[in-house]
Amino acid sequence: MDLSVLWFWIVAFLFIGYFVLDGFDFGVGMSLPFLGRDETDRRVLINTIGPVWDLNETWVIVAGASLFAAFPEWYATLFSGFYLALLLILLALIARGVSFEYRHQRPESRWKRSFDRMIIVGSAVPAFLWGVAFANIVQGVPLDAGHNYTGTLLDLLNPYALLGGATTLLLFFTHGVVFVSLKTEGELRERARRLAARSGFIAIVVAAAFLAWTGLAFGAPWFWGFAAAAAIALVAGWLANAGGAEGLAFSLLAITTAAAVLALFSALFPEVMPASNDPANSLTIENASSSTYTLTVMSWTALIFFPLVLAYQGWTYWVFRKRVTRASIEAAAH
User: Which residues cross the membrane (predicted)?
Assistant: First the structure.
């Protein structure tokens, strides 16, 4: 396989890791106003992701760095053209991270509520805008001959992209709520399971519309296979949640996210940034990639360090695998 093609799929793998792991983090954050009936509930919710949220977030850094090194033209066009949307994502992630660290520093309820709102907004904004960004990448944006984006931020908020944003928002929300049911006990666990059933049904409808639109407008043969896998896993995850099998539901929703990302990348292939105004201005894997030497060095580096990163992350989840209970939170308060 050509190294540039290999790195196209490695970038896809890194975004799968990010959307699966930070995606359910976003869902937990967005669930605060729905599941956090009192301060103890909210602390339980935050503690379910407390040990892992920052590790999950590093996947986007690795994905961005890999994109910069492997496809500098793609990186330059994407980050210059989408800079306002990506800046909003960055500010939201900063606000969310600050909130996790500072929320518990003072006992006043007003202080905590302020940071709770930052967590909610800091989770919802990236969950929505990542879908908007990837939908625009797939459908193409206006580019000049120098591969510079010639549109505006409002041009990115078109109906197809907004549907993509709604899809990721609902999918991440449902995945996060299922994670809450997997990591908690008692009444909170049951409320999370019921909420996931409701949000999951809406996610199925919206995701089906988005995947159908994508397939009919931009889909390649591979797309339909991945889209079908995403649809089957989403429905199966919804049914597993209804049956009380939280672990299976969480795994199936992770498969849903992975298959959906692969479907989008397969719809994009072999382009990386289609030009909607003139196909001659499009960025492809061939004209956007780095030199063979650069990709070779990156490949050997990835071969050495990827297994170590995956092993460390797996170990982290194993260490913090136990459920978070209200009793443990109340005991820690004393």
Answer: 6-32, 74-98, 119-140, 160-183, 195-216, 222-240, 247-269, 297-320
